[in-house]
Amino acid sequence: MAKFLKKESGEITLFALISMTVMVLGIALLNKISQEPQDLRSQAASSCIAVTGIDTNPQPPFAKGANFDCNVTVEESGANSSSIACGLSVNGSWPQNICPSDTNFGGWSGSTATFHCTMPNDVDTNATLKMIGFDFSSGCGAFTDKAKSKDISQATTPTPTITPGGPTLTPTITPGGPTLTPSPTATLTPTPTPTETPVPPECSMDNLKKLFDQLLASKDINEIKELFSKLFDCIWTYGNSFGIKTKPCLPPNCDFDPSKTDNIVQNRKCLVHDTGPCAVKNLIGTFQTQEAAEIASKICDHESRGLVNVDTNKACLTTDKHEYSVGNFQINIWNDTDNCPKNMQPAFFPKDPYCVPNKNANDCEAYYKVPQNNIKRAYELSKGGTDWSTHWGQAVIDCKL
């Protein structure tokens, strides 16, 4: 939001802006209040690839740290797509990326994609565990009718079938007589509706109604600001619980295809590196040719000097620049896309900070601080090293490329 609001004459503009926003937000909120809570498993867009089956090899249950394959079968037209994923959902949460496609993809066999997975060491084995195969393209996701899941919870371990006439099981006799151990009764745990976090009382639907009524009745500009901020923050943070669709990001699709990358560059040397993340030998595996890798090395040096630990350029925290650039190629995660909404919240009122990173932004920042993830995205944004001008225009000028 541009900082154009003035303290006095701008107060009318601010009031009008808030009033218009309140009207739009109010209509959406009232629609939600008047309707039954919507199922987060919304109908997928017709363009989403349908998953027709999902299986694991070997079969569950899996111990912590165990390796296994997730096989996702899709409709024939979706074979060989790069947007298919398999992840672990714990108690209905968004799938964890335990089968990263950039490093653990086993390839396609017909219309079945194989992912090599590792069960997390910190997973709660008593939880409801599901492997979900889905299309992570924009507008699709793990909670649509085109995704498929397989329950791998401990409770799903099959009970052995006793064949009539088979061997007789003789109990072990201990002093004092045999001890009979009762068979545990299986408990069916319903799959919970996915939510990001429990909704606190101050953000309950009843309290939102009260806040909204107070907001409409208020004539005090400061009170309107406070009420709107509370209302906005609740819906922003807990939208899933109100049936307002939010979709956490699943790397590597939490990058945001900015119009350009780093605007604040102090390094202009454009050196070709022999060691470190920007080294040609480290880039040639991705960029494929010596020439392309050398150009990428220069861009990498320009953006980060080839440092292993690169400070994130958080210009949007203190200025009105739409910039939050991460890693060796300074991937700008400011701009939002349908793949990863709500990663970077603009400050609602014109004051510092200009942007407010939330959990999704933090996850994306951590992902792109890993050099190989950063290099992979730079390769994609530069169209295989053939177009650096679109996203690294200043580097192209400075490096005379």
From TrEMBL:
Biased composition (Pro residues): 191-201
Name of the featured protein: Uncharacterized protein
Entry keywords, A to Z: Membrane, Transmembrane, Transmembrane helix
Low complexity: bias regions: 156-190
Transmembrane segments: 12-30
Chain positions covered by the region annotation Disordered: 151-201
